[in-house]
Amino acid sequence: MAASKMATEAPGLSEITNGATAKTAIVTVVVKRPLIMTWTYKSQGREKEGAKLQCILQCEDPAEYCLGVAKMQSQDKGELKKLMETTWNENAVFRLTDISLHKEKPTFVHTNCRLVIDLRRTKKTALMQSPKFPLAPEPNRTIADILQVTETQRFDLTVMIREIMQERTSQQGLRIMDMRLVDGSRIREEYASLPITMFFRNVSEAESFKKYFVERKPMNLMCLQGTYKDDQVAVTPVKDQFWFQPAAGKRSEVLAQQAENLLTKELAVKDVAALNENPSSGAMDFNSEPATLMVAGLLDPNGPFIKQALGEETQKVFQLNLVNWPTPTQDDSITTNAGDRLFSSSVDISDCSGKVMLAARSKAMLQVAAIDYPSSESEALAEYKRLLQNGEMRHPILCSIRVKVEAKPSKPEAEANSQGSEPNGHHTEMEAQSGKTYNAIIVEVERFDMKEWTLIPNDSLQSVHTLLSFGNLGSDRLLAIPLDKLQPAAFSNMAYSFADDKPVALEKCLALLQFTKPTNGKQHTSGIRVVGERVRDMTAEGSDKEKYYGTVVLSSFEKGGDFHITEGGTIVLAVINRVSAPTYSAHAAELHIETLQRVVQSEEVVTKAVHFMRQMQSIAETRATNPNKRSSDETMLHWTKSRKLNRWPTADLPADPSEVAMD
Question: What are the structural domains of the chain?
Fold first, then answer.
């Protein structure tokens, strides 16, 4: 009772306005929803890990609740976990005095009391006899209040579901619902309503949410975000921080009493926001809009091109075609720091322009591995790990990807420690001399269709050459090279040259090979050596058709079957990672193969494959004869777009970018 009296007489949570008033307040709180939030970022070129403990601090008054935060110290996440388990655990009760506030942008605070208490610096006294706390917080914002949002702002609502307008399933198996919410608030004489798109990770979560609609019960939607743009507001749930729960308290009781009137179809309502079907804080599908054509070498974190490509935009989605994303090894990191879902912070992708390291979200990792998206993150992680550990995972040699790049102020540590960056903070950050950092993450992938062999329109080939003119081309480029142009090299894995040009170093190249006879496998202590003889270049012309090559593959026992050719005439797309002098005089050279994919043995498919490979070879040949001529039309790079993965811009490039036609 004494503690309750002190809390009543001293300033309460809602009276805290700054650090000074916080020192005078005394509040009694119960801990709700403690969790450890983690993210990665780069500072001064080095990757770092950020983490913090965050929870809801609920007072006896259901309308008085705020956030509590404890930052990780000395990169010790174990200490943070112990702090949550032993002190700031679910339903723990404390009297807080000499309160210290954690610096946080109010725009990222969703609770009624828009402040964040520093759990480490605030004095606390554990209480054995708990006061009577409410069953749930009571958000004080209403749907009508959303009209006052003029910038990004997070908030909570107590609502009822008036209607579910549409239900669908995303490509990765997420359940999606478009719905309209009401809470009894009004805009003049009309009742306010909120259209919103909700994403659910599995059927169980979706049905649990839908139950509130069926039973006509009020619910709390916690951690929504309103974003003001183009004179309208869009409201979305904040990824990884949103949750819903049964509403309780007086507002909930009043809303339940109004249900019959509010949920009738005859009642006129007025929407306060625009429906956003692809909220940035949700599990977005980045295939819905055209993406700007790009090459890997221009996503270089040390290069100036990202600044130019984004201009004043804060976010842009790029499409890269004919990309090689190698299959991960068991030593690669494939999960978030918490280990609870798929995520890769360091994926090396390469194409005809070079190599770059990007991050990749779980959806992209599953797409490139051809894994159907399971009903939950845990199932996705389990299946991915199983395939990787058993040596059963196979990436295609080529794929098409979409990369989301975001520009942020060049204060990685400060940004990483704000709630605004954490939910989407798992990115590779690119620092440029522009005063900004650039987060890049692979968000969508489509495997290259080995049956279709989609050809590259001439205009798109020109666009690729223009893009290449902006890059610093090195030996890490993945080019398609005619075998007769390859040769061993002293300081690289191979070299190529056209006509009398100086040999150009390469680490890998692509080739379309035909095995005229089955391969031979020879076991050694730790794997299999697979040897091929009399192998031809399917793109060769004239007398070069009569040249033969030897092949060598060093494989593990598990993957030996991938490389063993059982029938003569088999055609494969191969990545060659070394060229050496021939072992047999009948061969022009010996090709060391890193990976291969078999081509469908039909005349139509093989004809397409040969034509396609010759198009790719023209990229290397043109660059060899036309070195580093920078295009004057730099604006082209901003509006040469593809509508779909594995597709190219097809129209002639007009003077007005708005006139461009896209595939």
Answer: 2-126 (2.40.50.140), 144-271 (2.40.50.140), 291-452 (2.40.50), 478-625 (2.40.50)
